[in-house]
Amino acid sequence: MSKAIRMAGVGILGALIGSLTLPLMAEEGSGVFNPDDYPQAQRLVKGLEAKGVPAEWANHQLRQAKLRQSVLDAMAGAAERHLAWHEYRDIFITDQRIEEGVAFQQAHDDALAKAEAVYGVPRDIITAIIGVETYYGRYRGSHPVLDSLATLAFEHPTRGEFFTRELAAFLQIAHEQQVDPATLSGSYAGAMGYPQFIPTSYQAYAVDFDDDGLRDLWNNPVDAIGSVANYFAEHGWQEDGAIYYSAEGPASAPEGLAVNQITTPGTSLNTLKKAGITPGMSLEEGVAVSPLVLTQDDGTLSYRLGLHNFYVITRYNHSHLYAMAVTELAEAIGDATSQAQGESDL
Q1: Which of 99, 123, 195, 261 lies 20 to 30 angstroms, CA to CA, from 136?
Q2: Is 291 in contact with 97 (CB distance < 8 Å)?
């Protein structure tokens, strides 16, 4: 959170839900779960047992789970699916979130400096990810992770296999770290902690950044900072690389041009020219970009050209709106920090 679907986190976005009716239960929390009734649950337990997790322990944990209709409802209503850019932006680019981002950086200056040095990922991007995902750790999710993942693993109509893997990873993490899985909360999709990592991302990218012997993303912002930076580095972040360029374009989105894609940048400058889009600066011949068309609150369109690092941000959450919000929040935090430092030097 990110992944879900495939993203590392969904975090605070879980509060922005729509609705989908699936026949699971009449009331929230009323779905009693018995793993013996689900062959895939028993396969999950056997797989965990092969990794050193006792079957008795795993079955006991699964029996604590409740199947929740609200989780299935929330999965259908992610904000990225139905909000225009200006609506999405207004959620995350606020004076308070910027000010608290500056405060977060001041409180964790050493960890952010270390993350920049080790992984080459800017502190403003790391901070913005945590700011968008959980408001710097303030809102880490109120859904019981065990319930969310069990519901999605065994009742989601299309993503059961994916979430069964996430549930297995979650139980393995809890067993290894000797944490009661029933006590852990997160997003409706099972994303956890400051950076809202789903369990397989937790396993793959979480780091013990303060060297205390634990990879604790639930409660340790230093581990979260290092883990976010590691995630981006592992996904190919280019140190000192730009994220996007501004551009000018027609009043209406060009027909026949693939825009707002979350794939590797692949649109040539010649293709942009034919579509009436002009980069705001001179670019090298042969460069490939991802054209972005964003709707402003007055109905006009603004144009951006996403580069490789923009694509890397979408590996955290597969949404061009998400990546743009993270980028603009990072820019705003950086500007506010520079302004505060300038004033302190006077």
Answers
A1: 261
A2: no
Query: What pLDDT is stored for residue 341 in this prediction?
Result: 77
Q: Which residues contact 274 (CB under 8 A, 6 or more apart)?
A: none
At 78, the pLDDT band (50, 70, 90 cuts) reads low
Which one from 27, 49, 87, 133 is the annotated catalytic residue? 133
Q: Which residues contact 246 (CB under 8 A, 6 or more apart)?
A: 279, 280, 281, 303, 304, 305
Tell me the C-alpha distance between 93 and 332, whole Å. Answer: 8
Give me the residue label for tokens 């710097």.
Answer: 136
Residue 297: CB atoms within 10 Å: 11
133 catalytic? Reply is yes
pLDDT above 60 (res 7): no
Alpha-carbon distance values, 160 to 71, 164, 343 (Å): 13, 6, 54
**Which residue type does 115 have?**
A
pLDDT tens digits, 93-129: 999 999 999 999 999 999 999 999 999 999 999 999 9
Q: How much of the chain, in percent, has pLDDT values that exceed 90? A: 82
Tokens of 131: 């700011």
